[in-house]
Design a protein that fits this description.
This protein has helices at residues 16-30, 35-38, 44-51, 55-71, 73-103, 108-136, 139-171, 173-179, 181-195, 198-212, 222-253, 257-269, 271-284, 289-308, 313-338, 342-360, 363-374, 378-400, 407-413. It is mainly α.
Amino acid sequence: MGSVTTAPPRPPVTTRTTSVLLLLAILAVALNLRAPIVAVSPVLDTIRADLAIGAGTAGLLTSLPVLCFSLATPLASWLLARAGLERGVLVALGVLLAGTALRSVDGLTWAIVGTIIIGIAITVGNVAVPVVIGRDIPPARAGIVLGAYTAVLNVGSMITLSLTVPLAAAVGWRSALLAWGALAVVAAGFWWAGTRGSSAQAVAAGTAADEESAGPVWWRRPVVWALTIAFAGQAFAYYGVTAWLPLLLRDELGMDPSAAGLSSSVFQISAIVGAFGVPALLRLFAGPRPALLVVCAAWALLPLGLLLAPHYWAVWCALGGAAQGGGFTVIFSIVVRKARGLTESRRISALVQGGGYLVAATGPTVVGAVHEATGSWTGPLLVVVASVATLTIAGTLAAGRPAVSGVSGWRSRTS
């Protein structure tokens, strides 16, 4: 093909106010990407009694969204390709609000339908936000913003875990769950303000970059599948541990159920440390491999520590919690580095999350089945060790080879 000389796209006008608004938009959306799911957990017994359903059926209210994270990724990718990142996320927030309202309508059918809609809407945000960070945040600050995004995912979970029960005691569980829809309304306002005017710039930059990208078809690249397998190991371990850690602490240490539930929150809270610690490591070292290995070592100490020295559970939960927050951050930092254009970044993000969450949805079931079959927690903890080993091997392979042209490269060529 002959070359065509065109004027380069004008660089986007970036001001401090614009950057702050974009950061607030990203964090406001992050508050909505786990909180509506986690909000069900503390009132699940109340929901079971009100709807007259068994534990397995009630579990669908927390497990179905994770399955949607996988099965709905093609739909999310299609929506973002057609509507653009900016409008796509706004649509998703509107759908999230609708799903939250439907889940609070009387009857099991509406609860299930609303839950599925919530899962689909969150999937769009899961795919879109890392791509926006890779596209619009300067490379020097992208890791920090990705860490902040990861941290706020956990902050949103902790807010709903802490406040849903008091809200339900005051107004009932339906209104308590419905109240969290306000987060979607707030996020929509911040998102609209923070991403205004960036759509046209994104189209120009993405088109130019995609035309220049070279190499094998994106889904044939080994690094894409290595990242998918790595994220599957990370997510499987996270959901397996999250589901069963309270029961493990109760059985192994003799805690009462309320104390075990409170103690297991150490695993969630500590994610904030990893979310901000990994960006610091990424800036300290030339490549992502050292940060990845630190994350994997901390992850491995959780199951191994609980096996060998369970009375130090707080240390192991804190290390594992920091690792799960850092693992998400480092994997998607690698996605940002390896993608050769805006479209490829979106597609890789969708595939990594789709494949990873499909495996993760089986985590609670597999860990629980092994526990039931063996009658102890040794087998389940070894399953988590194997999952972390998968993360380590696949993640090391993905991080080890330098990118042909990272996001910072295609972004700099088009700005």
